[in-house]
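re: ur question from earlier - yeah i can do the single chain one, its not a big deal. heres the input i used so u can compare w yours
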Amino acid sequence: AVVSTQSTGSATEVERTAQVVEEIERRPISFPEFLRYISTTDTDELNDHWAPWFLLTFPCHIKYDLIGYHEDFAATYRLLRETLFPDYRGEIAERYVGSAGREEVVEAYRGVSEEVLAKVHRIYEDEFKIGDFDQRLECV
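and the output i got, formated as tokens:
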């Protein structure tokens, strides 16, 4: 997880995000519609929640001591606890395995065209590599 203490969004980005939120509130969009939006929007125009995190954190220019992942928060927590608070003995749940089963994930992707999926994959390809996530498109 990347933590920022200040907003990096420009006024234009904030306005665009507000427009997207307003549109969603008027008519909730489907997951395939959301991925089409991601695939057709310049990454510089995506808000911080959807932009590839390497564009926000400059990992090639800043030497981070730790980059943690939601998917393995327990390991990140233990490392931080052992490093910063070695005498603390509190625990948390083990590895996060996802909130949806495989069937729900496959169903969510069912309406996504291969073209859109390939574009989204290219946008986040560096994140897949850096996070050592499964990159096989046939997984979905």
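Residues 1-7 have pLDDT under 50 and may be disordered. not sure if urs matches, ping me
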